[in-house]
């Protein structure tokens, strides 16, 4: 009954499942943004950033805290420890900040606390085009027609429309004319805000009816704006806006750009929430764009992650069908196969539905690792259970089933060991291991139930003799003959001398351990990817024009590179996102990305990196943080160090990762002059900000589109120091006072931004090396750290590859089989000698690493690591039940891998790499068992005893030589 309910609920839950390729860990980041218009960078740092950092530091779980203080804005980014509850921490941060809000000036807005992920990339990128419509107009159409509808889709977190320029209405005022009419910029702003509204005045009630009174003064025509009366002069004549200002359309200063293959495009970048269903969102996006496209705009989908997910699902179906077909062929000569196979298929469908219900309850998406676990569970269960099942008179009988206990212990040991590995490895393995174990349990549970209630009712005939036994044996003989011939030659040569095989074992073991120690281990799945994401990071404060120019140059170089199919870019000031699609058959592995970046070459003042955990290991870009307290001295020291580093051999370039201080005009208020002139500092600052930056007075409705109306002085009053000194500010007595009477001006270098790291001021620079030599990296780090610094200053090296040390992971892989089989030797009922296990399981395990590197080349990516972790419990289990000694089992693994390569695409290449690890290790164990047994029979000796006695002989010889040399000396 319980099983039926699970299947029923699974059927109801199946359609609601969401699927992701890789279960990504949530980046433990929280950002705190505070707006304070009119505050300079120094005041932002002292009054806002530092107090917030002080209270945030009191909260536990903070791993790293960085901040940027600039004019009008404070941005603090907090990286928390892994596993911290982000919602709870966000609430805790808000509570701490609330305790200091009363200390902030009134102009400061309440800080915004929100989650952030620096590696977040869009789910979809959609570009738009239309003949005879320029990009500015096209962007307005897209903003009006699509953006709000796209943002309302369930699961969409953000929609960014980029490309083109948003227009605004610019009112450029003549300062002299305004003074002649005794008007200030604030007067004009207030006038617009007063008139551009519709007011309800009430109702006139008659006997049988009532009339509503409304004043409709909202601006709706461009030509009306310049005719707005501002005041009446002394002679009673109205003063219009056109008398002292020009009104025109102009692009807004803030800008965001987009390009497709180095060509300007209007594009929408659509982001999703963490646990949202990508396929559902993509379908809804397409429906919205189709239904709302009244203007007949051409819509192109440049990137759609859901298409890759769909391809992956189809590949998983093919993967399952191929696996089960081979299982059927492999056991074709087993006369129990028809009943067993049909019942097995029903059971597998049942556990799929059960897992659909479980994932629905947990509100977790199904990932590749989970599907891999279920598939491996079904294959392993099939291989083990078909030997233990018999059907007599349509009655199911099982032999003693002890395999599950061994499997649980093996997987549990692996899972415990993966706690020592990087979090990405542990997460993938855990997501695979639990479906593997529970899939095995559910198959044991459902198989007898479904046989009794479904399969036995079908009356599938059981033949007296196996199907096509003669043909099968003939075909098998042909396949095995060649393999046996090759293996016999190897056996004859390696066993020709008693010492040859033991010496070969020791040599290959030493070589294999050396290979493991010098292997690169990467915690990502490069083999399944068809694209890569690159980031161009500029110093904070870099203009949009400069960012766009450098990014365009990088795009052209990327497109000229062989293997790159498409480049989509999103450009913000000081930051660019590049989505790079690769040609079919090209993977973003270590060598490709290294060549790609080498082909790009110099990126001016930008810092180019790829969103990969191993980026620093690829390209040897070392980031240094100089920590101190005086901004001017920090800049001088940083520039001095970078100039010295550039002269080192092997250094390509050194790039500053901050915006340098620049010459600015500093205003020093004359307090007495302010009092005499009846001028207040807030009034002075407000009027001056409107004069230079302008201010949005109100909104204008143009064909159902809202357009900002910005008021500021004409450009001629803002393009030189002399013109600036001639600006006159209206005081509280409606008199105009020259700026030169109110402030003194001083030209000095002023920091544009203040950077903090863990509450201390910091400036960063990156050193780019030629090649990837560890020795060169260490030399550069030692050189930089040896620089003489004043007291209170120190240099920190940013470890971008933290937690993925190759040597530590290699040591874990060396120790893993030793501890595993040490545990097995202690708990196994048949007391297995540890040295025997070392020879037939551990040494082949190390040699598998050597063969994998030799066959596949390149780094040891996540699928290979998972395959090697799984290979111990699975292969030991198969050999424990003597399946490994059957020649047909070896060919099953090999033939399965060959068919995977032929019929599957790259979307499930990670499973093929896991299967390759299992296959090679399985073959190595088979060879070790066979060669060890043959050697012992041929030379009538135990290999363990022979090796142990050899070690003792060497030890005695060394002792004798030491005694001899001691006497002689």
Automatic annotation (TrEMBL):
Keyword Membrane in record: yes
Highest taxon of the lineage: Bacteria
Gene Ontology CC annotation, any one: plasma membrane
Pfam families the record matches: ACR_tran (PF00873)
Record field: transmembrane: 313-332, 339-362, 368-386, 407-430, 436-454, 499-517, 807-827, 834-856, 862-879, 886-904, 910-931
GO molecular function: xenobiotic transmembrane transporter activity
UniProt keywords, alphabetically: Membrane, Transmembrane, Transmembrane helix
InterPro entries, sorted: AcrB_DN_DC_subdom, Acrflvin-R
The protein's name: RND transporter, Hydrophobe/Amphiphile Efflux-1 (HAE1)/Heavy Metal Efflux (HME) family, permease protein
Lineage summary: Bacteria, Pseudomonadati, Spirochaetota, Spirochaetia, Leptospirales
């Amino acid at each position: 009954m319980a099983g039926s309910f699970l299947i029923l609920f699974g059927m109801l839950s199946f359609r609601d499942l969401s699927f992701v390729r890789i279960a990504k860990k949530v980046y433990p980041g929280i950002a705190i943004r505070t707006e304070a218009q009119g505050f300079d960078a120094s005041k932002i740092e002292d009054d806002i950033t530092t107090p917030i950092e002080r209270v945030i530091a009191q909260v536990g779980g903070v791993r790293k805290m960085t901040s940027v203080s600039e004019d009008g804005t404070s941005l603090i980014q907090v990286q928390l420890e892994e596993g911290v509850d982000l919602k709870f921490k966000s609430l805790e941060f808000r509570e701490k900040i609330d305790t200091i809000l009363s200390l902030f000036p009134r102009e400061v807005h309440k800080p915004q606390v929100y989650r952030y992920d620096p590696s977040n990339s869009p789910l979809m990128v959609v570009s738009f085009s239309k003949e005879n419509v320029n990009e500015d107009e096209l962007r307005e159409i897209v903003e009006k027609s699509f953006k709000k509808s796209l943002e309302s889709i369930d699961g969409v977190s953000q929609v960014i429309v980029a490309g083109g320029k948003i227009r605004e209405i610019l009112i450029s005022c003549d300062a002299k004319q305004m003074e002649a009419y005794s008007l200030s910029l604030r007067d004009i702003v207030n006038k617009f805000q007063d008139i551009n509204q519709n007011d309800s005045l009430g109702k006139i009630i008659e006997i049988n009816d009532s009339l509503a009174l409304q004043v409709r003064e909202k601006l709706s025509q461009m030509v009306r704006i310049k005719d707005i009366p501002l005041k009446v002069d002394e002679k009673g004549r109205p003063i219009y806006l056109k008398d002292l200002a020009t009104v025109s359309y102009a692009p807004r200063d803030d800008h965001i750009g987009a390009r497709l293959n180095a060509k300007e495009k209007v594009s929408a970048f659509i982001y999703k929430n963490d646990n949202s269903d990508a396929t559902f969102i993509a379908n809804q996006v397409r429906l919205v764009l189709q239904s709302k496209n009244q203007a007949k705009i051409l819509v192109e989908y440049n990137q759609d992650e859901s298409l890759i997910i769909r391809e992956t699902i189809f590949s998983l179906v093919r993967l399952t069908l191929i696996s089960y077909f081979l299982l059927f062929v492999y056991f074709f000569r087993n006369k129990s196969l028809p009943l067993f196979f049909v019942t097995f298929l029903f059971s597998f469908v049942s556990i799929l539905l059960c897992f659909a219900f479980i994932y629905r309850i947990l509100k977790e998406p199904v990932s590749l690792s989970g599907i891999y676990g279920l598939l491996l569970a079904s294959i392993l269960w099939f291989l083990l259970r078909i030997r233990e099942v018999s059907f007599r008179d349509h009655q199911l009988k099982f032999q003693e089933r002890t395999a599950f206990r061994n499997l649980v212990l093996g997987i549990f040991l692996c899972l415990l060991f993966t706690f020592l590995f990087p979090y990405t490895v542990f997460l993938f393995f855990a997501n695979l291991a639990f479906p593997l174990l529970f899939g095995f349990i559910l198959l044991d549970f459902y198989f007898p139930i479904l046989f009794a209630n479904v399969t036995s009712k079908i009356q599938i005939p059981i033949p007296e003799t196996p199907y096509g036994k003669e043909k099968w044996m003939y075909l098998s003989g042909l396949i095995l003959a060649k393999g046996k011939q090759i293996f016999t030659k190897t056996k004859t040569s390696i066993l020709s001398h008693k010492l040859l095989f033991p010496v070969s074992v020791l040599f290959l073991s030493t070589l294999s351990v050396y290979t493991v120690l010098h292997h690169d281990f990467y915690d990502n799945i490069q083999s399944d990817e068809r694209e890569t994401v690159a980031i161009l990071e500029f110093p904070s404060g870099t203009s949009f024009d400069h960012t766009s120019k450098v990014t365009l140059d990088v795009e052209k170089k990327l497109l000229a590179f062989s293997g790159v199919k498409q480049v989509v870019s999103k450009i913000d000031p000081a930051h660019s996102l590049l989505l790079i699609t690769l040609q079919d058959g090209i993977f973003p592995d270590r060598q490709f990305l290294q060549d790609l970046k080498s082909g790009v070459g110099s990126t001016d003042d930008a810092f180019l990196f790829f969103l990969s955990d191993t980026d620093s290991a690829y390209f040897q870009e070392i980031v240094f943080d100089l920590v101190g307290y005086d901004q001017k001295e920090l800049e001088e020291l940083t520039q001095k160090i970078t100039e010295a580093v550039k002269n080192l051999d092997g250094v390509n370039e050194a790039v500053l990762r901050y915006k340098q201080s620049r010459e600015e005009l500093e205003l020093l208020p004359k307090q007495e002059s302010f009092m005499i002139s009846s001028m207040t500092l807030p009034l002075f600052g407000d009027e001056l900000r409107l004069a230079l930056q302008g201010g949005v007075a109100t909104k204008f409705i143009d064909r159902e589109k809202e357009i900002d109306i910005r008021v500021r002085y004409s450009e001629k009053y803002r393009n030189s120091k002399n013109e600036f000194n001639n600006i006159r500010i209206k005081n509280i007595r409606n008199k105009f006072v020259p700026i030169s009477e109110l402030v003194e001006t001083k030209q000095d270098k002023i920091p544009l931004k203040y950077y903090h790291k863990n509450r201390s001021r910091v400036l960063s620079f990156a050193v780019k090396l030629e090649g990837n030599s560890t020795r060169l990296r260490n030399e550069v780090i030692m050189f930089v750290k040896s620089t003489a610094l004043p007291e209170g200053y120190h240099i920190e090296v940013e470890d971008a590859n933290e937690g993925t040390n190759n040597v530590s992971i290699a040591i874990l892989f060396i120790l893993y089989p030793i501890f595993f089989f040490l545990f097995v030797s202690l708990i196994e009922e048949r007391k297995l000698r540890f040295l025997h296990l070392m020879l037939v399981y551990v040494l082949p395990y190390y040699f598998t690493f050597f063969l994998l590197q030799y066959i596949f080349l390149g780094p040891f990516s996540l699928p290979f690591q998972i395959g090697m972790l799984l290979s111990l419990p699975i292969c030991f289990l198969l050999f424990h039940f003597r399946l490994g000694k059957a020649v047909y089992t070896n060919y099953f693994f090999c033939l399965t891998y060959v068919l995977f390569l032929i019929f599957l695409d790259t979307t499930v290449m990670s499973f093929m790499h896991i299967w390759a690890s299992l296959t090679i290790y399985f073959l190595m164990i088979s060879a070790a068992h066979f060669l060890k047994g043959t050697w012992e029979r041929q030379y009538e000796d135990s290999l363990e005893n022979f090796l142990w006695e050899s070690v003792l002989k060497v030890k005695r010889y060394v002792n004798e030589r030491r005694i001899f040399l001691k006497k002689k000396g």
